[in-house]
Amino acid sequence: MLISIDIRDRRPIYEQIVEKYEMLIAGGVMQPGEQLPSVRQMASELSINPNTIQKAYAILEMKGFTYTVKGRGSFVSGDQAVNEKKRRIWEEKFISLVREGRELGMTEEAVVTAVRKVYGGSGNDRD
């Protein structure tokens, strides 16, 4: 099983499921075209009401992370929403690292220099 529920979390269970699948999909753990567990299987494994799983799956589909094939189940989408989520996750990590660098005394110029190393040069040279 790829996800678990935190009973101490105050958020509704369906929100926890949605968030965990978003992270698995955006993080590349689940690939486009990969099938999600059936509603019945998830409900059984997590010992929760199937309607809760159904609600979470409906939200994931509405957000563009999954699509449904009638009679076959839900599958991971290769949609723009997934790429957008990946970018947001990356940006949050980057901002966190820059803040950490600032706390360690790194200057803005030092951060820019580090970024330029990745992009190869002065920023005008792109590989």
**What is the general shape?**
elongated
Stated plainly, the CATH topology of the largest domain is called Arc Repressor Mutant, subunit A
Level-1 CATH class name of the largest domain: Mainly Alpha
- Rounded mean pLDDT is 88
- Give the SSE string: HHHEEHH
Question: Can I get a quick summary?
Answer:
By secondary structure, the chain is mainly alpha-helical. It has helices spanning 13-26, 39-46, 50-62, 80-103, 108-119; strands at residues 66-69, 73-76.
Describe the 3D structure.
- The mean pLDDT is 88.
- With 127 residues, this protein is mainly α.
- It has helices at residues 13-26, 39-46, 50-62, 80-103, 108-119, and strands at residues 66-69, 73-76.
- It has a two-stranded antiparallel sheet.
- The longest helix is centred in the last third of the chain and has 24 residues, at 80-103.
- It folds into two domains: 13-78, Winged helix-like DNA-binding domain superfamily/Winged helix DNA-binding domain (Arc Repressor Mutant, subunit A, Orthogonal Bundle), CATH 1.10.10.10; 81-119.
- The termini are far apart.
- Helix 1 crosses helix 3 (50-62), helix 1 (13-26) packs across helix 4 and helix 2 packs across helix 3 (50-62).
- The chain is elongated and about 55 Å long.
- It is 56% helix and 6% strand.
- It is built from five helices and two strands.
